[in-house]
Description:
With about 110 residues, the chain is of the alpha/beta class.
Amino acid sequence: MRVLLDECLxxxxxxxxxxxxxxxxxxxxxxxxxxxxxxxRVGSAFDAFVTVDRNLPAQQNLRALxxxxxxxxxxxxxxxxxxxxxxxxxxxxxxLEPGRVEVVSAEPSLR
Length: 111
């Protein structure tokens, strides 16, 4: 699966998403774009977009997207807080569908 990591995520998280082709927003040359402009560019280039932006589903119409979105919820966006979520991220990628949002959380109460 072709995965795009939002620019607010550590690029080293890509190494934990084994079996997937992972690119970061800065690597794609899209750093600094607003959410709407970024999502418009993701289009057919990626199958999944991973972010910690909890407001994204409320701010954007994600149902019409040709890719799925994974929203991570952790105590911070530091690699040490996100790395333990890697197995859950991989599971979410396996079931992700276009236009759908999967929330991956460190704590069940945050889902």
